[in-house]
Amino acid sequence: MPWRPHRDGRGRWPVVLRDATFEPPIVLRPLRVDDERDWQRVRRDNAAYVQPWEPTLPPGSPARTPVSFRQFVRDLDAEAAADRAMPWCIEVGGRIVGQVHLFGIVRAAQQSAAAGYWLDEAVTGQGIATRAVALALDHALGAGGLHRVEVNIRLDNVPSLRVVERLGLRDEGVRERFLHIDGGWRDHRSFAATTEDLAGSTLMARLSQV
Q1: Within a domain: residue 93?
Q2: Residue 3 counted as domain residue
Q3: Domain containing 116: what range?
Q4: Which residues form the N-acetyltransferase domain (predicted)?
Q5: Which residues of 86-116 are buried (b: 16+ CB within 10 A; e: fewer)?
């Protein structure tokens, strides 16, 4: 089903995006309840790899109550249905290899969101993360109806810095102690793209020219 805005500015969900130029194709789709075994496997195998970049709760915050995978999927769907997020898993060859989310969506006069992502270490270096982020941002700045998307990256997260460099996102500088990551407040460099930056093109088209 193609994305169409409601009159109140919300978007319909689910949205499935594909990059058929990659072999096998890269698919961004919502998580399903029956993905539990595959998702738990890739998260378990990558626990140490993603830990340095994972959000954590600052001291004094209420503890999170663990939820079932079924509830986790329902919560993601509810955020998407409320037009607060666009949460996808990244699937390649029928296997989940990561996730990319647009979150913190603000409509009205701002029309913006932020993007976050992670990828299975076993498939890094193939351009999958770069193409998945390009798919997500192209949708957000096109059919998704947003004007601006930002990506905030720790200064020492070299793989993610390479992703935004390949995409040509605008460097907006360092935000000090911006997010609580891996147990502490970490500086992040902010990158962004607006509809004007794309000038009628797409990030996927940029990649094809590299």
Answers
A1: yes
A2: no
A3: 17-209
A4: 26-192
A5: bbbbbbbeeebbbbbbbeebebeeebbbbbb
